[in-house]
Amino acid sequence: MIRVSNIKVPLDFDFNNLTALCASQLKVHKNQIKSVKLSKKSIDARRKNDIHFIISADISAINEERLLKQHKNAISIQEYVYKIPKVSSHIRPVIVGFGPAGMFASLVLAMSGLKPIVLERGQDADSRVKAVESFQNDRKLDTENNVQFGEGGAGTFSDGKLTTGIKDKRIPQILKWLTEFGAPKEILYLAKPHIGTDKLRTVVKNLRIRVTELGGEVRFGSRFNGFETENGCISAISYINKGKRHLIKTNNVILAAGHSARDVFELLYEKKTALTQKSFAVGMRIEHLRKDIDTAMYGDFAGHPALKAADYKLAVHLPNGRALYTFCMCPGGEVVAASSEKGRLAINGMSLFARNAVNSNSALLVNVTPDDYGSDHPLAGMYLQRNIEEKAFAAGGSDYSAPVTLVGDFLENKLTEKFGKVKPSYRPGVKPARPEEYLPDFVCSSLKLGIREMGKKIKGFDAPDAVLTGIESRSSSPVRIERDAKLESLTFGGLFPCGEGAGYAGGIISAAVDGMKCAEKIIDKIKNNV
To answer: Tens digits of per-residue pLDDT, 156-172?
Structure first.
């Protein structure tokens, strides 16, 4: 198989003619091409008068060795085949959490024959949708079933972005599985793939069905609340379901509870588990009109049928020694209520697959380091998060309304009185408030400096009527659960801290990879009778 990269094609290119294009690139007759598969497609928008696609194609052809010698932009590739060995054990492994890490850990374990038991404190995807709608419409927060907790984890109510900064051989297999469970086929080749909240709900349900068909079990409404040990190793795990405590005998537990399971962090601290402080980030969501972002990024090509809603990624280093960066940009999306604790406010961004909502939004985040915590307590970062969320809750009126301000008013230290052309998309509602009421001073000053700098990179980014909504505080975990080379807790054998909540991932794909790695370690243990 040959891969030819960096092929420039116009936006109007007919991909039904891909074989002919590849034959032209290789300077051979198209009859010499056996098969062609699009392997990457990205948008080159660096020059607004020449926006086009850059693609890569995987080609099976006659006499590939000769073609490789003749063409410098052609390389030989071999597809990696992910193999899961079959093993058996009368003691079933347990997974805490059914977000990306827990889902793919359970899938791998189920495919190996180990019949995992998954404990998920929230409910199935359909029930979650009802609970989230109830919160957005009636301000009724279910602390066990919300944007953070339930089938698919926090990622289910997001844009479903699959971009990642890690390189891992498991990623193509993850993408392939996702398409088998209902994700669009285009995620296999788009440079910035996404699934969308609407399609993710089906994907996570189908993945769960596959796990159960293979003998696994997902227990919803089951909140992990403790574990037992023998000789320093896990011997049992307990959970609460409908007010009753249940115990499962097990010697392998993958702890993939997510970064919002703060009660789990407190439980681990009480058990004297090895925990360390970890940096996190905090800030606000900025909203612009989608059409304005499209025009800023695509110029006259904005609205071209081959182009979807424009995205962006920005980072600026500031004279105060801090940095401001965008995170989880949601083109054509909305700002969503992401609280999971009463009396504390948190928000997130979400897009459907079509990305056709009126506004586009992104988190604007400032790093918060252990030096800012004012304590060496392992959970100091978590307590700081809670404190900021409590202040944001109060600033919003103590009814889960979100505090908002216009960019122009924020930069001029004024309280917003009315909105311009950009209307806040957050439900249940918003209340004008100064960010200084709930954000640390260094975060506010960094936002002011950084927004001005970002306005130099994207025209209109610092527009006075752009909307800033608080508070984005759940982008990453403030705690790391320490583990060794075997991915087991430094304190308890058989406990595998996993995914974003444990401090080892930063998105859907990296969490899924980490879940697979932990599952593989359990399979190796059982296979080698360790």
So the answer is: 888 899 999 899 999 99
